[in-house]
Every structure is written in C-alpha cells, then in structure tokens.
Design brief:
alpha/beta, PyrdxlP-dep_Trfase_major, Aspartate Aminotransferase, domain 1, pyridoxal phosphate, DegT/StrS_aminotransferase, PyrdxlP-dep_Trfase, about 40% helix, seven-stranded mixed β-sheet, globular, dTDP-4-amino-4,6-dideoxygalactose transaminase
Length: about 375
C-alpha cells in the first residue's frame, strides 16, 4: 500500500539531528518554552518575513490568541469560509464573536473577494481568509477591501508554510498569521504545535502574555490568559526541520507537476499555481464518482484522504451558521467530489506512477474505455 503520508520516511532522513536535538533538550532540564523555542521563533519569523513569531501549543490556539490579541470579541463578526477545518470557525466562537461564512472561488477554493465584500456589515471586525491546501488566497484584493472598510486581516496559514507571492510570504500579508505544526503539515512537530506571526510589537507582546496565563513577568498576570505554551522539545524538533522546509516544498511541487502532467483530463486537477504561491500541503483532484474512485485506488494499493467531506456549515455542531444545503454551492459541490492523493517529498517516482495509473484506469473505465493505462503517457522522469 502506498501510504497517504509516511512520516517514518522523513524521520529516517533526519534521525541523527532530530535525536540529538531531543537528547540535548532532555539533558538541559528545561521543557517548556526556553532557548530552543526562542531560536525557532526567530528563524520562523525570518522565514515568514515578519518581525515576530510566537510559538504556541497548536494551530487552534494560534487562531484563538490572534483573534483575542486583535480585540475581536462578543458581537463582532468575522468573515471566513466554509471550505476549511472546523478549527477556523471554532476559534471565532471561542472569543464570543460571530462567524460569517462566504463562499469560495471555484478555481482556487480560497475566499472569493467579491463575496467577502458583499458580506461586510457594520458589525464586521475582521476577515479570516484560509490558504487552502497550501495555496495563498487573493491577499492583494482581500487586503484592499479590508483596508477600505477598516477590517483586521488574520491569515489562517495552517497549510501554507513557505508559500510566497512577490516579496511577501504566508503569515506576512495580514496583521497576524496563524500556523499549525501538526505532524502531517509541511512543517510538522512530533506532536502538536503552532505559531502566530506579526510585525506589530504590541500584538506580539500581548500574544506572548496570553499564551502564558497573561503574565508579563513571573507572577504578574495583567491579562486573563491561557496555558498555550510550546514544549521545548517541539521547538527543538521544529528548529531542525525548518532548515529543510525549502527543499521539502520543492519536492512537493515536483510531485504535483508529475500529477499535473500524467493524470487524465477526466479528473479535475488543482488550478495551476502562479509562481510560488502554492506549497501543495494537499493535492486534491475532483471527480463525479469520487467514492468509486477512492475504492478503486484502495484496491490498487493507494491510500487517499478527503479534505474535507463536509463544509463547516454542514457539520452538525456548526449547522446554525447557515440555512443548510445550498447555502454555499461552490463549497458544497467541491466537498462532494474532492479526493486527496498522496503527496510528500519522500514519495517515490514509481509510487507516483502507480497512483497515476490507478486514477486513469478508473476514470477511463468510467468513460467506457479499456481502463488500461498507457505508460507512454506517464511523464518521462517517472516512467517505469
């Protein structure tokens, strides 16, 4: 079976420096925050092009604290999208604000700027665009609209580590950027982790206090904060892995190019990226017979996933955010057809070819053809 994700391969390539970093931390006797976390924060901020990065214990905590630091609270509306993981919306509810969903662009699957602008009301306080699957949202237009209406921009960059457009990187477009270091992310910890990026020193100071029980110094609690601190071991691990992020990103883009070139036109591949604005955390195709395709791939030894089978507003816990099915037709149509293929830098050429063969065999058979895959159509560099 070709795994959907195989973190053991990544570990095997980095075992020596990772184990050395963990042992150094264990022997040092400091296990929460500390020098390893501070060093990672400085390096990650530099990578994102921001003055500050504040490490926390998860991407969900990053979203929560970013909203709090920005002053979002009860009665405020925050515009975001239904095509995301539920944490994006849950964080808005945590601060007592009102999530207002707007549909996504059918090509990029990120926030549709026109729908965003149309949804603004006098109660709108912030906009929370999601860089879905690793593709940057249209931050130029979203930023222009937000500025015209006096709105705070907070990026959900949980899937977009290292994505860039022009001189700016994910996490550096808005007032605040929120990242997850869940193990399966492009930059993943050996457990949970997250970070908030900003170039505003006042916001950075507020977030540092909020993550540590509101303390500005030991036993001086100026704010009602939380225990959202990053473990030192996670900071040490992320510090090692960050040095490899650029190479891993290029590896993901290489795999994506093979899929783009080899997959049948009978499936819809992700819209072509512009420059370096997509880091392919997920490579998702769409097909009307998605469930049958997934079953056929499993039979062929290819593991897949679905990101996400239901938009947020069709999840039972969040059904009150819309009027049920039909509320966001683009998001709903996408969710019914999407299928995520294996994509990670360690994916082997012969495995990529096997994935392509299995996909094309099924969709060709669905179209009434032989179902055989002509390997001459496989990209030259991965032909087997």
């Amino acid at each position: 079976m070709i795994p959907f994700l195989d973190l053991r391969r990544q570990y095997a390539a980095l075992a020596e420096p990772l184990e050395a970093a963990v042992l150094e931390t264990l022997r040092g006797g400091s296990y929460v925050l500390g020098e390893a976390v501070e060093s990672f924060e400085a390096d990650f901020a530099a990578r994102c092009g921001t003055r500050h990065a504040i490490a926390v214990n998860s991407g969900s905590s990053a979203l929560h604290l970013a909203l709090l630091a920005a002053g979002v609270g009860p009665g405020d509306e925050v515009l975001t999208v239904p095509t995301t993981f539920v944490a994006t919306v849950a964080a808005v509810l945590y601060v007592g604000a009102v999530p207002v969903l707007v549909d996504v662009d059918p090509e990029t699957l990120t926030m549709d700027p026109a729908r965003f602008e149309a949804a603004i009301t006098p109660r709108t306080k912030a906009v929370l665009p999601v860089h879905f699957h690793g593709r940057l949202a249209d931050m130029a237009e979203i930023g222009r609209i937000a500025e015209a209406h006096g709105l705070i921009v907070i990026e959900d960059a949980a899937q977009a580590h290292g994505a860039t457009r022009g001189a700016l990187s994910a996490g550096g477009f808005g007032a605040l950027g929120c990242f997850s270091f869940y193990p399966g992310k492009n930059l993943g910890a050996a457990g949970e982790g997250g970070a908030i990026t900003t170039s505003d020193p006042a916001l950075a100071d507020r977030i540092r206090a909020l993550r540590d029980w509101g303390q500005v110094e030991r036993s001086v609690h100026l704010l009602r904060g939380y225990n959202f601190r990053m473990d030192t071991i996670q900071g040490a691990i992320l510090g090692v892995k960050l040095r490899h992020l650029a190479a891993w990103t290029e590896g993901r883009r290489w795999v994506a190019r093979q899929y783009d070139a080899g997959l049948s036109e009978r499936v819809t591949c992700p819209a072509q990226a512009s420059g370096d604005d997509h880091v392919y955390h997920v490579y998702a195709i769409t097909h009307p017979a998605r469930d049958g395709l997934r079953a056929a791939l499993a039979d062929a030894g290819v593991a897949t996933n679905i990101h996400y089978p239901r938009p947020v507003h069709l999840q039972p816990a969040y059904a009150d955010l819309a009027d049920g099915p039909g509320s966001f037709p683009v998001a709903e149509a996408y969710a019914a057809r999407t299928l995520s293929l294996p994509i990670y830098p360690e994916l082997r050429p012969e495995e990529i070819a096997q994935v392509i063969s299995a996909v094309n065999g099924f969709v060709d058979a669905q179209a009434g053809q032989t179902g055989r895959f002509d390997r001459t159509a496989c990209p030259e560099e991965i032909a087997i």
